Amino acid sequence: MKLLVTTFVKEKDLERIRPYFDEIRIRGLPQTSRILREEELIKEIKDIDFFIVELEHVTEKVLSEAKNLKLIASVRAGAGANIDIDAATKRGIPVVHSPGRSADVVADFTMGVLVSLVRNIAKGHFLIKTRKLTEKDPKRPGLAPGDIVWVTNDPENFPYIKLRGPGLTGKTLGIVGLGAIGKEVAKRALSFKMKVIAYDPYVKKEEAEKIGVRLVDKKTLFSESDIVTVHAKVTPETIHLVGEEEISLMKPTSFFINTARAAIVDTEALYRALKGKRIKGAALDVFDEEPLKHDSPFIDLDNVLLTPHIAGACDDSYERASFIVTSAIEDFLKGKIPEHVMNKEVFEKRNKLRRGK
Fold this sequence. Notes:
Structural class: alpha/beta
Number of helices: 15
Order of helices and strands: EHEHHEHEHEHHHEHEHEHEHEHEEHH
Number of strands: 12
CATH superfamily of the largest domain: NAD(P)-binding Rossmann-like Domain
Distance between the termini: 30 Å
Largest sheet: 7 strands, parallel
Number of domains: 2
CATH class of the largest domain: Alpha Beta
CATH architecture of the largest domain: 3-Layer(aba) Sandwich
Strand content: 5-15%
CATH topology of the largest domain: Rossmann fold
Strand order of the largest sheet: 8-7-6-9-10-11-12
Radius of gyration: 24 Å
């Protein structure tokens, strides 16, 4: 049998399943630092039995050419974003994924950009690196010997005033989507002595209260929060879940963070709010078009922290996902139903066929 791998999998995990395969073919990201195009993937997958994937689009066309394919294993939590689950199900191909692989690391990243945004850490770094806050001959009038204060000859750019931001203790963090990542963000925010509220119609009140979170409706979340952070999945009902109406409810002193998916937010409405200073600032790791275009209007805003979709880019998450997907393949080959199957009806159908139903 043959295994195709187009993402980063730990060598120790590949070694564990290597005895099952005549060939393990490494392509895509680990080989060329780019994902395979559809026509390239079709060429590679024609004779493949098992496929470990991350970002390639596994379309119906691709699956129609994969005559030997027995299982798809995605290192992502949301494999449906790039794999046609329905098409795989019709062909009897199980799709396993890696839920929670990035919960901790995305939560860490979210708190990192939150602090950096609110306390102007990134902006201060940028102003020094671009030499906008440096002087060849700084003067310190009126200071006692040994006193060190970052003084500038331009009083309007005095960083101690210009870059002053609010503390987090006692502030309210509103979480949109209290799933695996949202829960981890909540735990971290509570350790900062913040109040945490959340909007998620699929989470029970008792489940939220157990970790110290108060569930509220969407209107309450946007009107009460000092910082709003998005951690919902993209579904038909969450596209533009955050729009003009929700943003208009936010305080003028509030901040907005999106490390989830751009489609959840009406980015044009968000841009207008930031441009008009109707909210204090935002941190964005995801965009409607990626890479972000060089002429994106967000780049020119001085109240936005931008990062290139790296919230989940962490060695630890890859290590966790690597173990999950290779274990799923091993279980399948041993005749077991793997954990984290997205289309379990494939196995149910097989069982019915075996029983002659």
